[in-house]
């Protein structure tokens, strides 16, 4: 049998993400497809690689004005076609914005149809989707402030059921609740928002339970995340309490907004190890690296730093490209990591005005875009490759775990390479 086809320079640290598979190919009659040329190509990796899809909402809906309801991603819809091409050329997963304050600024008038059209547009192009977030104290609906706490809870429960139910089958992954560590003590406003008040009175764990149980009831197949930016022991204690209380958490979301500098490999692995001990998959939900001047280290709340101008620089762009590849290699090397989401495709309208994007505000790509694409769609990817089966219809393929497609004379079959190491996969071609 021919030796397995191998992608260039496999990284030994990613052995848990690679497979040496033997494809046993059969024709439409069930006979081995012997001594035949087949084309094998990767369609989507098992390791979800994503970005926010906020900039594509207006474009997917045929709008002309930028979305002012989202605090992250304000690119003009006129750039949508170009940004969509760049997005689809690199990413396979998108996070869509469900911030309550922007999604339902007027009670009873949610932005459901618009987000559904966006979700369908992306799903039709093979993109996996996640909603962010179902419960969060920041950017929540302002009209909750004047409601009694019992009514706030009732409205929040109904909101979870509505969104998860309305998007089931399109959006089947959710940040069920976001930044609970700080939620009951959040004091960045003149009047306490309704969700902070709810969490303060009910308690963190009870609030988390509410989010997960309502979402689970609306879509039992959904993947539900507990997500936070606080990588201290406070988040670990929260996770311990939530799991001890019997709340079913599907994955832990860890944010890594590195506006004050790259964490580095050692710290990143230390953080991953601390949260991997809970035995849950880890999703790096919000990663950013700057291509300009770093935020001063003394700033405690990133939202407090708002310079008049925060440009991308040539030196910063080279640094960002290097650190981005190092970051992705480090995350992929850890077996607990199932998903990596970068938080910003373009600098246009980026959070805090920071130069975090892989695309400049004028639409040109930075070195970081090209470097990441070379990694995930080059080194970690199997392009369409012609291989020849042996006398028993077998052919060897080595590549990263994920979804693949095999074609022969116009007939194609989808297959999944889901097990690391040596494995055999049966492939049946249709008529």
Radius of gyration: 23 Å
Mean pLDDT across all residues, rounded? 94
Question: What is the tally of beta strands?
Answer: 15
What is the CATH-assigned architecture of the largest domain?
Alpha-Beta Barrel
Give start-end ranges of low-pLDDT stretches: 1-8
CATH superfamily of the largest domain: Glycosidases
GO molecular function: endo-1,4-beta-xylanase activity
EC number: 3.2.1.8
InterPro entries: GH, GH10, GH10_dom
Catalytic activity: Endohydrolysis of (1->4)-beta-D-xylosidic linkages in xylans
Report on this model:
This protein has 431 residues and is of the alpha/beta class. The protein has 2 domains: 1-36 and 389-431, Carboxypeptidase-like, regulatory domain (Immunoglobulin-like, Sandwich), CATH 2.60.40.1120; 64-379, TIM Barrel, CATH 3.20.20. The chain is built from 11 helices and 15 strands. The protein has helices at 57-60, 80-88, 100-103, 112-123, 149-166, 194-202, 204-218, 233-244, 265-276, 314-333, 367-379, and strands at residues 18-26, 37-45, 48-52, 93-97, 128-132, 173-178, 223-228, 251-258, 282-289, 337-342, 385-388, 394-400, 402-408, 411-417, 421-428. Helix 5 (149-166) packs across helix 6 (194-202) and helix 10 packs parallel to helix 11. The two termini are 26 Å apart. Residues 1-8 have low confidence and may be disordered.
